[in-house]
Amino acid sequence: MxxxxxxxxxxxxxxxEPPPCHIARFYVQEEDIEFPLVGxxxxxxxxxxxxxxxxxxERSRLRDRRKELYRKFRNRVVAAHVAVEDVRVSVGTxxxxxxxxxxxxxxxxxxxxxxxxxxxxxxxWSEVFPTEDVQxxxxxxxxxxxxxxxxIRPCLVFLVRLLxxxxxxxxxxxxxxxxxxxxxxxxxQFVLDSPRxxxxxxxxxxxxxxxxx
Length: 213
Prior knowledge:
By secondary structure, the chain is mainly alpha-helical.
């Protein structure tokens, strides 16, 4: 996942260990930034959004390991939002974002572990539907994929906005990513761009938090 590489790069830059110059030159934001951050959802609203998704996961028949990894992912995303609120200053440097970036780094790590687990243990109908009589145009793996994508989207939007503050030189890249992630049909485009597009039309579900701020 390219987002994992970006967050690693941003954290190294903040720690004073940017990648070698022959790879690229990264310039960390030197000007102070204002808090609270513009366009970042309150942690309480993020917690509510993920709380509803987590409740759905906990009520499901998903394997315990899937539930555990999803729970850990959710906790870190919420913690990342709390971290930027705990700065408790009106003006600061981008170094104050390090804790939040660290939480997001771990969150993406848990999501990566979940993806790997899903590859090793493909999801079964019984995990996503209470009975085998329920019909769907999507396969179990496609249903679970869409759930994970809807779950990770707010995390990635938040990350991109932090990257825009830490590494402003690449603002065009961050803007392009944000526009893609906040597009109403982003899942459709994401899936169609994948090596194995779905056999049936893809539906999207409205999110409970505002990604367009």
